[in-house]
C-alpha cells in the first residue's frame, strides 16, 4: 500500500458515509471505493430507515438517490436538512437523469452537490472528498468566529514574532485604508482569511459589512448567482429575487476567497465591476447597480501558470493586484510555530473545559523540525489531538507516512538528518548568546531581549525551551 493511500485511510477512518440507493449494483461499487479509503460505510434502500440512520449515526456524508420507492429523494433531503439545520452533513444527490429543474430544487433544499450515477466510483469519491474539504473549511471558520463572539480578527490576532509575519502585519497596516484592491497569496492553511479580516478590521469600513465568499464552496455555475444575486424568474424555480454578496456588502468589504476557481464569464464581469463599480444581477436584462465595496481576493494557485493557461485573466489579475500580500508558509516562520501551538492549547482548553497541557521539549523540537505541509490548519489539528491525549500523542502526521519515508532512506530521511544537524548547531549558538545577554544585564529579561533584537515574550519562551531558568 502506498504512503499517500495509507494517509488517506487514516484521515478518513472516523468518517461515516451513508448510501441511500435501492440499486444493489450501485451500492456495491460505492462500498468498495469508499471502504478501501477507510470510510465507515452504511447503506439502506428505504427512506424511513435512512432518516433513522441519519439521526442516530450522524454520518458526515450522505449519497442520496433521487428516485426511490416510497418517499422521493428530495423529500428525504428536506427532512434531513430539517434535522441538520447547521448543514453539518455533506449531502450529495445521485441521479441517472440530471434534469435542470431537479438539480435546482435539490440545491435549494440544501444539497451540497449533484452527481450523475454514470460516474465511476473513483470519480464519485473525488467529488465527495472535495465537498468534505470545503465543509471542513467552513466548519473551522464558523468555529473560530464563534469562539471569539463573532468578532473579526485584527492585526493583534495574528500570532507570531518572525520577520516573515511582521512583514505581513506591516503590509496590512499600509493597505488598510481601503483605497487599493488587495490580492492575497499563500498555500492552503496559512491563514489568508485572517489577513483579509484584519485588513477590514483596520480599515475605514470596519463598521460596515464584511462578506466572505469561498468560491470553491459552490458549483462554478452558482458562483455568479451568489456573487451578483439574481432576479425573480431568472431561471426555473427562481420564485423570488436574491441579494448577492456584493449587494449585501453595501459599501463594506467583499472577500473573494479562491478567486482562481471562478469561470471566465464571472471573471469578465468582475473586471467590469472592479473598473466601474457597476454590475447586474443574473436575469436583470441589462439593469445595472452600483457598488462602492472594497475588494480583497485570495488564491493558493500558481499565479504565472494560471495566467499562462488562462485559468486567471491577466487584465483581472492586474486590476485586483494593486496591492499584494503573500502569507508565508508555517515552515518559514521559525519559533512562531511554538507561539501558535501555545495559542491553540489555550483555545482548546477554553473550548472543551479540559486542563491546559505543557509542551514538552521533545514535542517542541519535533514541531520545529517538521515541514508542515498543511500549515497553520494542520498545526491546529495536531495540537488539539495533543491536548485531548493529555500530552501523550505527539504524532505530527498520519501514522506511517513519515516513518515509511525514513525507512526507505529517501529524500525525506536525508532532509530530516540535515535539518536536525543544522538545528542543533543553531541552538548551541543561540543558547550562548541568550546566556551572555542575561548575564550582561543582570538577568533583566526586557533589556536582554532588546539587546538580542527579539521580543521579551520570545526570549521567555527560549529560556523555558532551553531550560536556562537555573543558569541565570
Task: Characterise the protein shown here.
The protein has 472 residues and is α/β, with parallel strands linked by helices. It has four domains: 3-129, Rossmann fold; 152-328, Rossmann fold; 334-395, Helicase, Ruva Protein, domain 3, CATH 1.10.8.60; 409-472, Orthogonal Bundle (Arc Repressor Mutant, subunit A), CATH 1.10.10. Helix content is 51%, strand content 12%. α11 crosses α13 and α19 (445-452) crosses α20. The protein is globular, with a radius of gyration of 25 Å. The model is unreliable at 1-13, 141-149 and 398-419 (pLDDT under 50).
In short:
With 472 residues, the protein is an alpha/beta fold. It folds into four domains: 3-129, Rossmann fold, CATH 3.40.50.2300; 152-328, Rossmann fold (3-Layer(aba) Sandwich), CATH 3.40.50.300; 334-395, Helicase, Ruva Protein, domain 3; 409-472, Homeodomain-like (Arc Repressor Mutant, subunit A), CATH 1.10.10.
Amino acid at each position: 500500500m502506498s504512503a499517500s493511500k495509507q494517509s488517506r485511510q487514516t484521515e478518513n477512518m472516523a468518517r461515516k458515509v451513508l448510501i441511500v440507493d435501492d440499486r444493489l449494483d450501485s451500492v456495491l461499487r460505492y462500498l468498495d471505493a469508499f471502504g478501501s479509503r477507510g470510510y465507515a460505510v452504511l447503506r439502506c434502500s428505504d427512506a424511513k430507515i435512512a432518516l433513522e440512520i441519519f439521526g442516530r449515526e450522524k454520518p458526515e456524508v450522505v449519497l442520496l438517490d433521487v428516485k426511490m420507492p416510497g418517499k422521493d429523494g428530495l423529500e428525504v433531503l428536506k427532512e434531513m436538512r430539517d434535522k441538520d439545520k447547521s448543514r453539518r452533513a455533506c449531502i450529495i444527490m445521485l441521479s441517472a437523469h440530471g434534469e435542470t429543474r431537479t438539480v435546482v430544487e435539490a440545491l435549494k433544499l440544501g444539497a451540497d452537490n449533484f452527481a450523475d450515477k454514470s460516474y465511476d466510483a473513483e470519480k464519485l469519491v473525488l467529488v465527495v472528498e472535495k465537498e468534505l474539504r470545503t465543509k471542513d473549511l467552513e466548519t473551522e471558520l464558523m468555529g473560530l468566529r464563534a469562539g471569539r463572539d463573532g468578532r473579526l480578527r485584527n492585526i493583534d490576532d495574528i500570532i507570531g514574532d518572525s520577520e516573515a509575519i511582521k512583514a505581513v502585519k506591516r503590509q496590512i497596516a499600509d493597505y488598510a485604508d481601503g483605497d487599493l484592491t488587495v490580492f492575497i497569496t499563500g498555500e492552503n492553511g496559512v491563514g489568508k482569511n485572517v489577513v483579509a479580516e484584519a485588513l477590514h478590521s483596520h480599515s475605514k469600513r470596519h463598521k460596515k459589512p464584511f462578506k466572505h465568499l469561498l468560491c470553491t464552496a459552490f458549483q462554478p455555475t452558482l458562483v455568479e448567482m451568489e456573487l451578483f444575486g439574481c432576479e425573480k424568474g431568472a431561471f426555473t424555480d427562481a420564485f423570488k429575487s436574491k441579494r448577492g454578496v456584493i449587494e449585501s456588502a453595501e459599501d463594506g468589504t467583499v472577500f473573494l476567497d479562491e478567486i482562481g476557481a471562478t469561470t471566465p464569464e464571472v471573471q469578465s464581469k468582475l473586471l467590469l465591476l472592479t473598473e466601474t463599480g457597476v454590475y447586474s444581477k443574473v436575469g436583470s436584462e441589462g439593469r445595472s447597480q452600483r457598488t462602492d465595496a472594497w475588494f480583497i481576493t485570495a488564491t493558493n494557485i500558481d499565479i504565472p501558470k494560471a495566467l499562462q493557461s488562462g485559468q486567471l485573466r491577466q487584465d483581472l489579475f492586474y486590476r485586483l493586484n494593486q496591492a499584494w500580500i503573500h502569507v508565508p508558509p508555517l515552515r518559514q516562520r521559525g519559533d512562531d510555530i511554538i507561539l501558535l501551538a501555545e495559542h491553540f492549547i489555550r483555545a482548546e482548553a477554553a473550548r472543551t473545559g479540559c486542563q491546559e497541557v505543557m509542551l514538552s521539549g521533545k514535542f517542541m523540537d519535533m514541531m520545529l523540525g517538521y515541514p508542515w505541509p498543511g500549515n497553520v490548519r494542520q498545526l491546529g489539528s495536531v495540537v488539539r489531538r495533543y491536548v485531548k491525549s493529555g500530552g501523550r500523542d505527539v504524532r505530527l502526521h498520519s501514522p506511517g507516512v513519515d516513518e515509511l519515508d525514513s525507512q526507505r532512506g529517501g529524500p525525506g530521511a536525508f532532509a530530516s538528518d540535515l535539518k536536525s544537524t543544522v538545528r542543533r548547531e543553531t541552538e548551541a549558538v543561540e543558547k550562548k548568546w541568550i546566556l551572555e545577554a542575561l548575564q550582561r544585564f543582570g538577568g533583566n529579561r526586557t533589556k536582554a531581549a532588546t539587546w538580542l533584537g527579539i521580543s521579551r515574550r520570545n526570549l521567555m519562551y527560549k529560556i523555558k525551551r532551553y531550560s536556562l531558568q537555573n543558569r541565570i
